[in-house]
Amino acid sequence: MRADKKLDGRYLIRMTDPSLSAEDAALGYKQLAEVELAFRTMKSKLYLRPVHHRLDQRIRAHVLLCWPGLLVVRVIETETRMTWDRIRDVMDELSLTSLLSKHGRVEIVSNLSEDQRNIMKTLNVTPPKRVRSLAAAPSNT
Questions:
Q1: CA-based, 20 to 30 A from 20: which of 4, 11, 107, 137?
Q2: pLDDT digits (tens, 9 = 90+) for 13-62
Q3: H helix runs in the chain, sequence order
């Protein structure tokens, strides 16, 4: 136990390539941890499910398609200084209601909360118009 406590807050890295410096090895492991975290984020926060590809070109294409999604998430988190989970919870409250009657159809966006307005303002996103669509019913003449 005492020996373990001496190692708290330190990294122990075992490597087989003697040409790497300790700094390069540590940096490599740190980058590996960041990549693994990114893939966990893609699977959980972006709701990606396991996709089984056999061909190299399909694997590369899949990663290439997922990467921009993760990049967008990270940029939004950085700009808003909020977690993706929190942003998603706030924005999930925004809704679009479609009303249909014999007179026509109208689509109405719910009122924006202060948090939703702040997120959109921070990201320089134009808020949606309150009434999105208005269509008169076709006449039966």
A1: 4
A2: 777 888 888 888 888 777 777 767 766 766 666 666 666 777 888 877 87
A3: 2-6, 22-44, 56-80, 84-92, 114-122
If asked whether residues 27 and 75 sit together in one domain, one would say yes
Q: Are residues 128 and 81 in the same domain?
A: no
Q: Would you state the structure tokens that stand for residue 66, as one six-digit string? A: 């997922």
Supply 86's token pair.
């929190």
- CA distances to 100, 108, 130, 133, 134 from 137, rounded to whole Å, are 9, 17, 21, 13, 10
How many beta carbons lie within 10 A of that of residue 44, not counting itself? 11
For residue 97, list its beta bridge partners. 108
Is 112 part of a structural domain of the chain?
yes
